[in-house]
Amino acid sequence: MPIEILTDDDLQTDTGTLSADASVSEKAIHALRNVYDPELPINIYDLGLIYKVDLNDTAKTAHITMTLTAPNCPVAEELPRQAQNAVANATGYATSLTLTFDPPWKKENLPLEAKLALGLL
Hints:
It is a single chain. With 121 residues, the chain is α+β, with helices and mostly antiparallel strands. The protein has one domain (3-118): 2-Layer Sandwich (GMP Synthetase, Chain A, domain 3). 25% of the residues lie in helices and 18% in strands. The protein is built from three helices and four strands; from the N terminus they run E-H-E-E-H-E-H. Helix 1 packs antiparallel against helix 2.
């Protein structure tokens, strides 16, 4: 049965090293937090570009649903590929990705820390 990852209440936002006994979901989120939008100083997970990560431990598969800050994003091909490769490498799972613009990304949905980092407050 797939496990949906949407929150990180039990994870630190530090992208440092993971403990040796980190769960697959922790590894996936950690990997996504190490992929950065080249135009913004924030990783794609904390930027809110990752809508969902489904993990199937039995089948050893992962599926990422993500968006971009805009449909005409200059890294529209590169950034999703980086996210997919990061999760695949971190988890060892066969990883697929769906890029969606529904709902569209909005800066209003950023967490407070990200708004501060971008100077939006």
